[in-house]
Amino acid sequence: MSKVIKGGTVVTADRSWRADVLVEGEKIVEIAENLSGDEVIDAEGAYVIPGGIDPHTHLEMPFMGTTAAETFESGTFAAAAGGTTMLVDFCLPGEDGSLLNAIDDWDRKSRDQICCDVSYHMAITGWDENVFNEMADVVNKRGINTFKHFMAYKGALMVEDDEMYASFKRCAELGALPLVHAENGDIVQELQQKYLAEGLTGPEGHAYSRPPEIEGEAANRAIMIADAAGVPLYIVHVSCEQAHEAIRRARQKGMRVYGEPLIQHLTLDESEYFNKDWQYAARRVMSPPFRNKEHQASLWAGLSAGSLQVVATDHAAFSDEQKRLGLDNFTTIPNGTGGLEERMAMLWTTGVETGRLTPEEFVAVTSSNIAKILNIYPMKGAITPGADADIVVWDPTISKEVAVSTQKSIIDYNVFEGMTVTAQPRFTLSRGDVIWAWGKNSQPQPGRGKFVRRPAFASASKALSKWKALNTPRKIERDPMNIPSGV
Amino acid sequence: MSKVIKGGTVVTADRSWRADVLVEGEKIVEIAENLSGDEVIDAEGAYVIPGGIDPHTHLEMPFMGTTAAETFESGTFAAAAGGTTMLVDFCLPGEDGSLLNAIDDWDRKSRDQICCDVSYHMAITGWDENVFNEMADVVNKRGINTFKHFMAYKGALMVEDDEMYASFKRCAELGALPLVHAENGDIVQELQQKYLAEGLTGPEGHAYSRPPEIEGEAANRAIMIADAAGVPLYIVHVSCEQAHEAIRRARQKGMRVYGEPLIQHLTLDESEYFNKDWQYAARRVMSPPFRNKEHQASLWAGLSAGSLQVVATDHAAFSDEQKRLGLDNFTTIPNGTGGLEERMAMLWTTGVETGRLTPEEFVAVTSSNIAKILNIYPMKGAITPGADADIVVWDPTISKEVAVSTQKSIIDYNVFEGMTVTAQPRFTLSRGDVIWAWGKNSQPQPGRGKFVRRPAFASASKALSKWKALNTPRKIERDPMNIPSGV
Amino acid sequence: MSKVIKGGTVVTADRSWRADVLVEGEKIVEIAENLSGDEVIDAEGAYVIPGGIDPHTHLEMPFMGTTAAETFESGTFAAAAGGTTMLVDFCLPGEDGSLLNAIDDWDRKSRDQICCDVSYHMAITGWDENVFNEMADVVNKRGINTFKHFMAYKGALMVEDDEMYASFKRCAELGALPLVHAENGDIVQELQQKYLAEGLTGPEGHAYSRPPEIEGEAANRAIMIADAAGVPLYIVHVSCEQAHEAIRRARQKGMRVYGEPLIQHLTLDESEYFNKDWQYAARRVMSPPFRNKEHQASLWAGLSAGSLQVVATDHAAFSDEQKRLGLDNFTTIPNGTGGLEERMAMLWTTGVETGRLTPEEFVAVTSSNIAKILNIYPMKGAITPGADADIVVWDPTISKEVAVSTQKSIIDYNVFEGMTVTAQPRFTLSRGDVIWAWGKNSQPQPGRGKFVRRPAFASASKALSKWKALNTPRKIERDPMNIPSGV
Amino acid sequence: MSKVIKGGTVVTADRSWRADVLVEGEKIVEIAENLSGDEVIDAEGAYVIPGGIDPHTHLEMPFMGTTAAETFESGTFAAAAGGTTMLVDFCLPGEDGSLLNAIDDWDRKSRDQICCDVSYHMAITGWDENVFNEMADVVNKRGINTFKHFMAYKGALMVEDDEMYASFKRCAELGALPLVHAENGDIVQELQQKYLAEGLTGPEGHAYSRPPEIEGEAANRAIMIADAAGVPLYIVHVSCEQAHEAIRRARQKGMRVYGEPLIQHLTLDESEYFNKDWQYAARRVMSPPFRNKEHQASLWAGLSAGSLQVVATDHAAFSDEQKRLGLDNFTTIPNGTGGLEERMAMLWTTGVETGRLTPEEFVAVTSSNIAKILNIYPMKGAITPGADADIVVWDPTISKEVAVSTQKSIIDYNVFEGMTVTAQPRFTLSRGDVIWAWGKNSQPQPGRGKFVRRPAFASASKALSKWKALNTPRKIERDPMNIPSGV
Ligand SMILES: [Zn+2]
Ligand SMILES: [Zn+2]
Ligand SMILES: [Zn+2]
Ligand SMILES: [Zn+2]
Ligand SMILES: [Zn+2]
Ligand SMILES: [Zn+2]
Ligand SMILES: [Zn+2]
Ligand SMILES: [Zn+2]
């Protein structure tokens, strides 16, 4: 049974044009004017865009002694309600350190719950021969082409420079892409101790102990290591000018570095932590913390300039009760905020409606760019014949105030609460199924989502490898006559 | 009669995939595996890419007391032989100053000669009410959405800052895009006089009198004026780090500025002017002149980083005899070099084969990006159903030494002479017609090319206008009580 | 009769140490512990610093149809009261265009009024052979080694790029230093017309029509022209990051460029123009206008980093009544504010007391640096044997609220009104004379001040000339065999 | 018995003037024209400058399994012969880890040998409570106000980020200045292993394994850590644009960071390592390695712009035989080159004679700046009454080819061999004693040198502490009503 999305303006990362979109089963089969199908989905007055991809979520993640409260079911349904049809979750090795077992765990957790498609980034939280070996299977057998490295969370997830180098080199060999959480974990810990020692225990201490310089430093370091290892690099949650500057500087040397700001950092600022209400401030605790407005301006410019490519959420939602674990000590407040459901609408409202971004750039940074980086384009991230029918009918006339009472996320608050967004998905399709329809009492369809396998050796990886091979240092050949005979 | 391009790998600015391309008449109608058509064009082992677009040529241009020797016929045929299926020529007002008459002139010159499609940029070489008025017709009636401004060539083409501002503002109103040749004409003239006065009359004086700082300054100035006028800006022939830095700096503030390096500046350096053979050096005289290798590295990085978007040629070819007009005085050597025929192959060889660029980036910077900037995408610059069948079957196995003896350009030398390129167009199609087939003794088909009309108000223009309108300074309302009663 | 300044801490640009200072007549003769002299000046608990030098004043300047209200008498007395013992005023050619006559005029105006020493910068407001010729006499006979160029005030003082180049080259020959007021006068005028046309006539329009980009552009352009002419450059009233960035970029290429922020731009911001009281806002109208706090941070960092060298005032004070000339049109509000009297105290309070500057840096940027740049160090700007006894006993324990009622300036308002400064001169000595003593009812001593002659060819000028001579482009020698025989 | 230095031009960091200098005992007592004394030192036609200070030497240092061959006697005599009158050597803790014992060791080694004055930097090569405690004594009892940290030499001298932070904080408390050797030791080691594994064992491998990015990264990291700890920072042997860029970026944020290029990096380039003669190349092995000419240009510009302050040598001289310890493995070639004797003459020749530096800047970067940074100005680094009579009569007419045969260093080669320098010390005075006289067969005077004690809390340290204290984050005071009652 076919569906035709009629009457809308298709917007891709390239262009916008009036056309209908015909869907057969899970795929887009035709884009043209005046198409017909068994079922009509009304897009009159709306945009027809590729479903959003959020490449940075932590659903049900065990972290800081608790587990992120958003489930794969609630998270993927909230995503759909917000116009996002795929998310990439971070898979963390368990106590046995095995990558493959961790994937099995994540599959077990997600399989029966997910309402839309997912994939995983694999975290490298230590280094040994087993990790080295398993990485090949992760890439080649499990279809995961990205590995995450934490430069912070010392004593827990953090890896050292030589471990990063080893893992990055392994990524280069396997055609995979390393990701980093860029903050200097040593110095974060030192500043945490300093502020605690001074009796500064509230959520504002979280922000003070993770200043922009600490993020910029780590970004800069990761870039150098990736360059030495000969591999592209993707820096998650770029929150500040310092990290962004490091990225720009690298790119201007021809290095292939990507940067991902979060919708939170684009729209919320550090004054949130100074709120007189502890719970209000604690809800906003995430790493990196929100920054001041100068940093926001830097991030926005990066999106239009192309030095930053992707807008994500780092959705890691903890309940009010969980946040209270850090009541006397900000370092034990579970780190994370939500955003999965609001990412698209918030970016449209503050980006497209203000003229900072074109509609095409909106599509690029919410979907197409990350699909290319993850090497799943145009299966995902595109409106083109043959692509998965992950499509959103995006209605720029629906205005809505963000409210916990109406959200699909199961968290008991929302960092965007009270803000008005000026667009919403009228319909969200995941591989041809309508999984969200505005005002139609849509319900979650757990278990219908699939795991998306991603092939290695994206085009940028291949180009960089070629360049590095051609430019590798050469041995100087010396005549034995010109070498002394020894000590 | 349909044609099917079979067995190749389609490469667009987005992606690469194995597919056949079906062409009906002038248009691409389908892209899929296993297509068939009336005629088969063999793409086995080759890439199938959008025809190149060279947005910067000066064919038969009256300049510096002579006329560029490359004709519309020879130029467009050379283009086709090199894989370029569209070029945008600069249309200069004549003595009457009328823009519309100039377009008529250019049409008259080009119409019966062009072998592939063309469009024009309109030059603004002075400012008055008539120019102001004609600009609307140029855009709305003649389909030209770009206006060129020369900041150099004092006493001839050069315009002053207030004229640029006026024209840029007019562009903003009309949804057109201003272009600039960025060199400080005042200081160029001063340095020319200085070197001539010192008896330094050879072609090296051309390079000395146009140092990078002079280009960077003008680029920086044009960017400020465009920002003040609220319009995007396109800077032609970006040859040096200084101009590139100004562009990067602007983009990082959210300004919408584009930069166009030339294939010559990417691959040739200033030492060419120091050649002991006068004629050799004079052939390379163009503005801006070639730079040193540090500048080349900057330009290459800009292409992969996205701070530069387009590779062009500024093809303005003068014969050896014409060059000798400046035998005793470098300032009278007609400025210009060729490159139309070699742009694609040189960029592939030095860019893609070295890993500096991916194949997709190659397509972006030779074709798709400029099509988007000129607002004719995806009619041009794309391999997609509905697009013009301007297609090149790009064969990465044909190696060739650049030689005057085999070139299609009618100029008696070639600045790339003796260099080996490692790819060539196997077939070049212009709106479905094969206009070049390697080794098949293709002949020019003058008069088959068409003028391409370009609509105003590209997406970036609209976004910028929205931003500027929202951020325009606001009047402070003052109570009459707080305003003194006068002097 | 000798004087000994006893018990203080001498602070120079180099260092701080406990010592007495012995003055004989007009000169410092000894610095050591336990000195004695005929008269004792008590410096117990205070710093002993070189008298401030304000290199940027406009006393009694005819401008915008009126004349700056601060006289040479009131201005130099206000200076003394604030710890400034020398100022450099801008000498503007009159209708006859003669530089030498202008100096005579300025001498006539100042001679009988000045309470402390002065010098002049000579303005170049047009270019012809007479100006070229007179410049030599200005430097060699009149002892003026600086020439000011206005890139703004179109139709009045503004010069074009080729005129600047010509004058800068002349400066290079004469060993003089060019100065620029850096704003793009063309675009300022365009924006003025735009805002007026929109009915935006209030003082805020002044700020809107002179945005930071316009200043940055001009600074960048002047730097390029100075580089082409082979001469150092001094940019007056650097008010924003854009101009500062251009300076830093130039310096990092080895260019010799100096930047002078004003005390106003370091401490006041653009919100002043949004004041609901017209007169309040109009009093702050000066060019460039005050900027936002990000720009302030840039300027402060420049002072400690050494990329900016001098803090001045651009003291050009117009009365409330004069300001009302622009009641209906901000472009006719006379441009200028005061600051001569508060410069030292404001900088101490906001710079040294906050730790942004060391006491030594305070001395450097208020006195020693400009003395070196003007090539009159250590006659001025130093506490060293042989130097002029221009000395301030600077008391960091006197706190004072800036108030019109107590100021020595004759203007009827003060842009720092109501602010508290935490240091004041206890005594100000000019060539050995006490011209100001806190709380002692000091009176102006008009006519005691002298004109300070400044020699050409400062050390940086000589070094730059040497570098430029060694690096001048060289002619390529070509065998006649390799030069064609002509057209 | 007094000495008068007659007929010369005194050059300081501030200015140049004709004057005689009168020395009584160890001190300068007067500077004026026409002085007389018991003994006349002829300075006719020469400059009279402060003795050079080389703040970076490793004499007789145990390192990499051997001991630097230059002794305190030969080193200090070579220094004197080159116009350097003070050097600061690096004191490394021995196996017991005690800082105080290390100082005793160094004293024992140096005391009877030194011909001129010395001081030490204390190295922090690990962190524990004893080090923390001893640091106070090092500063307050031993007069050492600088602590060196190695970010490279993993497994030997290297410290981790948290150790650096702890030590930097301790420096802040004590008013001391941390120094860093900035290279990422982890990545250096990885690259060393990589190249060795590829069979690339020659000296060029040393350069390949320590690319500029690795230095830039470490510099950037150290700067962040210093900023977090609230202390100024001095980066030794800045060899490349990357490290210099990090310094400039920091300074432009108001951070107090100093950079020290070496004379070797200013004048020699990486091609030295590609020499076909193994021994030639091995002699040049030092860390960081020599860089290409673009980096040299960056360093030179930094000296004139003020973003780099000091020119040193890192004199650590190993004999040919010692170098052959790394015959089969570049990682075991002892790192180090000489330069102590040539620093002044090479910098004069390539800096002042070319116009890159003024004579005053030459004095600043060879002597005065480091004296200020080390808080011993004007006892050292100045020509002023009361200063130590460490004076050089600098003769710009003595041209000399650098040659092992004539050098005073006892090393069997010289990295500047064959180069011509165009100035030499005619006389070198150390605290009033002539310790070198050109052409007079001067002999070392071992044991006459003294250890120079340096007080803590230099002016920049105090200012920074004040700024940090004023800008420390503040606790948000929350009403108990607004804090939840617990989990
Ligand atoms: Zn993270
Ligand atoms: Zn995360
Ligand atoms: Zn041009
Ligand atoms: Zn052109
Ligand atoms: Zn001015
Ligand atoms: Zn002024
Ligand atoms: Zn070192
Ligand atoms: Zn060292």
Automatic annotation (TrEMBL), chains A, B, C, D:
Q: Where is the Amidohydrolase-related domain?
A: 47-418
Q: Which CDD domains match?
A: D-HYD (cd01314)
Which cofactor(s) does the record list? Zn(2+)
Record's superkingdom?
Answer: Bacteria
Entries under SUPFAM superfamilies matching the protein: Composite domain of metallo-dependent hydrolases, Metallo-dependent hydrolases
Sorted keywords for this record are:
Hydrolase, Metal-binding, Zinc
Q: Which GO terms describe its cellular component?
A: cytosol
EC number(s)?
A: 3.5.2.2
Which EC main class describes this enzyme?
Answer: hydrolase
Q: How is it modified after translation?
A: Carbamylation allows a single lysine to coordinate two divalent metal cations.
**So what does this thing catalyse?**
5,6-dihydrouracil + H2O = 3-(carbamoylamino)propanoate + H(+)
Instruction: Describe the subunit structure.
Output: Homotetramer.
**So what family is this one in?**
Belongs to the metallo-dependent hydrolases superfamily. Hydantoinase/dihydropyrimidinase family.
Function in brief: Catalyzes the hydrolysis of dihydropyrimidines and of the structurally related DL-5-mono-substituted hydantoins, to produce N-carbamoyl-D-amino acids.
Q: What is this protein called?
A: D-hydantoinase/dihydropyrimidinase
Q: Which organism is it from?
A: Harenicola maris
Its taxonomic path starts at: Bacteria, Pseudomonadati, Pseudomonadota, Alphaproteobacteria, Rhodobacterales
Gene name on record? hydA
